[in-house]
Amino acid sequence: MNEPAIDAEAFWAFSLEVYAKPQVAELCIALQDECGFDVNLLLLGLWVAVTQRKALDAERIRELREAVAPLNDNLVQPLRRVRRWAKPSDPVIVTARYKLYGALKQVELNAERLVQAALVEALRPGLARVDEMPTPQAAARASLERYRQFLEAPDAAAVPLAQLIVRALS
C-alpha cells in the first residue's frame, strides 16, 4: 500500500482547512492558553491520524516538541505576545493599531508555517515507529491523549480534546 506523502505543504493545507472549521480555532486556542498545548502539534497529531492512521507516542511528542522549541520560544511566542498586545481595543486608535495587528498576525502566521515545516522534517525519520490504528479517529484520540498525559494537563482537558477531534475530523 502506498502511504500518502509527508510534506510540509500538505500539512499546511490540512491545517488551514481544519482550523477554519466551526469551533476548531477556539478549542485549539483554549487548549494552548489554558493547558500549554502547542496548536501545531495538535494539528500534526490530527494530520498524521487522517493521512497515515498512526498515533504519536510520548517519545515522538517529546522529540517533536524539542525540534521546534527554538522556533516557538524565540519567534512564535514573542510574536504572539506582541500581536495580542497590539489588538485594537480603544476606538480612538483602532485604525492605526488594526493595521499593526494585521501585519503582526501575518508575520506570526508565517512563523507558524516555519514551525510546521520543522515538525514535518522531525517527523519523517521516525514515522515508521509510530503506532498504526484502525481509524483516523482512534489514531487522533491516542495521539492527543498521549500529548495530554505528556504535558501533565488536567484530566478535564480530555473533554476539549475530544471535541476538537469531532470538529476537526467531521
Key structural traits:
globular; 170 residues; two-stranded antiparallel sheet; 2 strands; single chain; mainly alpha
Characterization of the model:
- By secondary structure, this protein is an all-alpha fold.
- The chain has one domain (8-169).
- 73% of the residues lie in helices and 2% in strands.
- The protein contains seven helices and two strands; from the N terminus they run αααβααβαα.
- It has a two-stranded antiparallel sheet with strand order 1-2.
- The radius of gyration is 17 Å and the shape is globular.
- The two termini are 25 Å apart.
- 28% of the residues are buried.
- The model has no long low-confidence stretch (mean pLDDT 91).
- This is TIGR02444 family protein.
- It comes from Sphingobium fuliginis (strain ATCC 27551).
- InterPro entries: CHP02444 (IPR012659).
- Keywords: Plasmid.
Helical run tally: 7
- DSSP summary, beta strand count: 2
Span between termini: 25 Å
Please mark out the parts with pLDDT under 50 across 5 or more consecutive residues, or reply none: none
Shape: globular
- Numbering strands along the chain, what is their spatial order in the largest sheet? 1-2
Question: Can I get a quick summary?
Answer:
This protein has 170 residues and is an all-alpha fold. The protein contains seven helices and two strands; from the N terminus they run H-H-H-E-H-H-E-H-H. InterPro entries: CHP02444.
